[in-house]
Amino acid sequence: ARAVAALNHPNIVTIHAIEEIEGRHVIVMERVSGRPLSERIEAGGLPLPRVLDLYVAKVYLRVFGLAFVGMLVLFYVATFIDLSDKLFKGQATGRMLLEYFAYSTPQYVYYVLPLAVLISTLVTVGLLTKSSELIIMKACGVSLYRVALPLLVCGAIGSAALFGLEESVLGRANRKAQQLNHVIRGGSARTFDVLNRQWVVGKEGHLYHYVFFDPRRREMNGLSIYGFAADRWRVASRLYAGQAAFRNGTWTAVNGWGREFDAASRVKTFTPFQQRQIGLESADYFITEQPDADRMGFAELRRYVEDLKTSGFNITPYQVALQRKVSFPFVTLIMTLIAVPFAVTTGRDGALYGIGVGIVLALAYWLLFSLFAAIGPAGMLSPVLAAWSPNIIFAAGAAYLLLTVRT
Fold it and tell me: In whole angstroms, what is the distance from residue 378 CA to residue 103 CA?
């Protein structure tokens, strides 16, 4: 039966001979052109289809290239349409747009890669199923798990690529892209490096320096106020507060001290305090763009979270974002696991059907990912569980499908 199945399929190989070696039947295959294969498929034994791996990988990479490039072009087109009016009105130059595209490309790749992996797996397995090649492979003793091994390897490479991209390139590129986007839309040049401590000049000439500002709670951490002499450029005073909160129109500082300096920059007075009212602009004066985890790598965000642990601020959103930076790269491997058995059951409906299923699965994952991303910062789940729950749910679905599909 295996010999007849292989003979009736023109895309595989033809039977060269059937030998009996040490009591086991061995089917020796050769290509239609007559070139012998460098391997044998033992009936009932462990298959070693290295040629099969290359064949499946070739189909997969061809589909992956088309899907990846196609979706990447869609991002470029959508971005150009969004910013084209700035170019035609003279607010931006072609060079600025090209630089913005260059710095935005890592983020586009980060979004496109998981979907391309999912669609490629669905279409590849679907094509093998529709052309009956998967049946031939099974008839030759090659299980579905073994056929899918090249796809799993590609999915694992995709996960490593996502994590490496996020750790080495993504944060820096996103900061540059945000700067350019701000300038293209008519704003002045700004620094979006959220790891730098903040410096603000007050309306009366004071210089404010703070480590972190929470606009929702209207609180600051590590606030320093520098006052300057009126007659010459020198620091006349400095006030430091471990924390400062804006309540009922006034700032209340706690756990701090004040220093005054003479003309020789020597400390004239030193006054510690536990709590006192301080004169400062309103909280709205300090509201700027919030620290964004997308503009930080894993190591940068981890250091940022460590710096804020002792501040008393709510760092749960950043802890969730930190865990998501580890959990999200696994999406390519999980999508591959769930796509393989799914494509076996739907593969005969065609490649377009596989693409549609892939988009639906990707939207379902992203919706679940966003849902838990909103639940986690609210404190309803631990940061680890909030970040890893979508992967756990989809991995459980993939395990069920893999255990129930005919292999």
Answer: 32
Cβ pair 288, 294 in contact under 8 A? no
Biggest CA–CA distance in the chain, Å, is: 104
Interatomic CA distance for residues 73 and 287, integer angstroms: 36
Amino acid making up residue 219:
E
Q: pLDDT tens digits, the chain, 407 residues: what are they?
A: 444 444 444 444 444 454 554 555 555 554 444 444 334 444 444 444 578 888 888 999 999 999 999 999 999 999 898 888 888 887 788 888 899 999 999 999 998 999 899 888 888 888 888 888 888 888 877 888 888 888 999 999 999 999 888 888 888 888 888 888 878 877 555 544 444 457 777 777 788 888 777 777 788 888 898 988 877 778 889 999 988 999 888 899 999 999 988 887 788 888 899 998 888 888 777 765 555 666 777 777 787 777 666 555 677 888 888 888 888 889 899 888 888 887 777 656 655 666 677 778 878 888 888 888 888 877 788 888 888 988 899 888 888 888 887 77
Per this entry, what is the length of the chain? 407
298-300-306-311 Cα dihedral, nearest 10 degrees: -120
- Please answer whether residues 79 and 104 qualify as being in contact, where contact means their C-beta atoms are separated by less than 8 angstroms: yes
d(CA 239, CA 394) in angstroms, rounded, equals 53
Backbone region of residue 22 per phi and psi (left: phi > 0; alpha: psi in -120 to 50; beta: other values): left
How far apart CA 338 and CA 391 sit, in angstroms, is 11
Contacts (Cβ under 8 Å, ≥6 apart) of 129: 135, 343, 344, 347, 348
Phi/psi for 11 (5° steps) reads -85, -10
Tokens of 98: 């090209």
